[in-house]
Amino acid sequence: MAQLGSWVQPHPTGLYIPSADAWVDPAEPARRALVTHGHADHARGGHREVWATPETIAIMEARYGPQPGGTPVQYGESVRLGEVDISFVPAGHVLGSAQIVLEHAGERIVVSGDYKRRADPTCARFEPVPCDVFVTEATFGLPVFRHPPTHDEMDKLLQRLHANPDRCVLVGAYALGKAQRVIAELRALGHADPIYIHGALERLCNLYRDFGVDLGELRLVADAEKDAMRGHIILCPPSALNDRWSRRLPDPITAMASGWMRVRQRAVQKNVELPLILSDHADWDELTETLTEVAPREVWVTHGRDDALVHWCMTRQIKARPLHLVGFEDEDD
């Protein structure tokens, strides 16, 4: 009897599907790439063909230039490559993020990419797909990682802002996904004031707007007077938090939005005064609940803390193994 999922070959640089002559999230340029989402550790340039959601292709074009071999696949649409039926299902990670569902030889394999289970006003919510093999991330694959409610973290941000009207709150947030989510979550709580952004965030914020995500009034820090930014929230890439750029701001309270802010030492290392635990990845409970929900016969664990999740599976008589793919980073989640 053939091994379950033997028609998908794990390599250090990605998952290869010979029957479709395609790679999922290859770390090197490939003839045909199936891409789960637009973060640079999953979506690289140089592929001859790219199959992804329209949003992900647009993100890749914004980052790498025109994608002449780009083929957009809508959520729920099915395409056939070689002998494999392929569809894209929402992953809930960032705009356009998808789980890639592969069906061949009477088996269904779901490559989840990066995913989260929390509601997010900037992207479609994760949809569980029952399968034979589930390929899961394990970025926060330890029981210590349990993310607090999103509104609690946003309340902390607004309370600090209102308590310091003569200062500003500078929030470090990854340029794709996290920055837009912070803005949208604040808008959902009724924060209608202008939000200032670093120039490096402008292009992707505009892209989100092009796909119908309402971010309200955004202003560039470069166009603002220092005093005009008092009492406002300012967003920047994490790399700019302690950069010379921040010196133009009015006495900033330094914050950072990341699941890693659960680890106090990370906040200390980055000189973060206001850690905001806001992740675009599933926490431990959400990872295990997802595995229970999709009920796979086998679990493949990648890019993260795989030991604990593999152990959890094995204690529940679910076959599991780590893939040890290379090149995946947390990207300041």
Automatic annotation (TrEMBL):
Keyword Hydrolase in record: yes
Keywords recorded for this protein, A-Z: Exonuclease, Hydrolase, Ligase, Nuclease
Record domain Metallo-beta-lactamase: where: 10-174
GO molecular function terms noted in the UniProt entry: exonuclease activity; ligase activity; RNA endonuclease activity
Entry-linked InterPro entries: MBL, Metallo-B-lactamas, RibonucZ/Hydroxyglut_hydro, Xnuc_lig_assoc
Enzyme Commission number(s) from the entry: 3.1.-.-
Tree of life domain: Bacteria
Keyword Ligase: yes
Enzyme class: hydrolase
NCBIfam families in UniProt: Xnuc_lig_assoc
UniProt-recorded name of the protein: Ligase-associated DNA damage response exonuclease
